[in-house]
Amino acid sequence: xxxxKIFDExxxxxACNSCHATCGDCHVKSPSIGGVSVGLINKHxxxxxxxxxxxxxxxxxxxxxxYTGEYGGNADVHYQKGMMCxxxxxxxxxxxxxxxxxxxxxxxxxxxxxxxxxxxxETKLTARVAHLKHSxxxxxxxxxxxxxxxxxxxxxxxxxxQAKPGFFLGTSPRNRTEITTLRVIPTVRESFKPAGIQxxxxxxxxxxxxxxxxxxxxxxxxxxxxDTCHEDRKGFLTMETLLKNSSRTNLxxxxxxxxxxxxx
Length: 264
Known about the structure:
5 strands, three-stranded antiparallel sheet, two-stranded antiparallel ribbon
């Protein structure tokens, strides 16, 4: 209980709480992130929708620049088709339904790829077979993420945070039957020691969590060639790529793909 109190006072207020928004933070001015705000969106007007500002002010570190291609690589195919955030993320989702959810996966009507891309309606037989074969074992992002996305390292209370591109595939910590894209949670054993937090239960959770990467492409090196995953195992989390001094639970996310048997 004492460490929880320290976390609330010394960690949450300085880091986590800086991104929790009010109505005005989305529709009138930019929220204060790390103590810095860029000010009003459009004078004192209430801006109903302008995703490049109303969404990107908070999500501009990772999701938005990955979606638009500003972070590097190709823009998401949906962005190239003219789609913006609210085409998938509805107003009801943003404003909530009055219930407090522990995680976004609990939200019943959250957006899913299959809302538009209904399985079984693919025009190509190869795509239909691939989707059927992987529907219970791989997320859409595992195959259709275009490539590297932003990974953050070193907690802000540590020796200085940094971000660099990376691509990791592994077992989803929320669904152990599924392979998906993973994003680094940069908290290691020593992260909160300066604040007096020892993290006795550090190994209870992994440092990698499933993330719906917003750099989707119809064709990627994984959709073009089965060997990319089944033989080369490219992009999969390994012992060598694990964060140093990280949770032992990370080992459970390392997935070893099976080779495809060759018919004689």
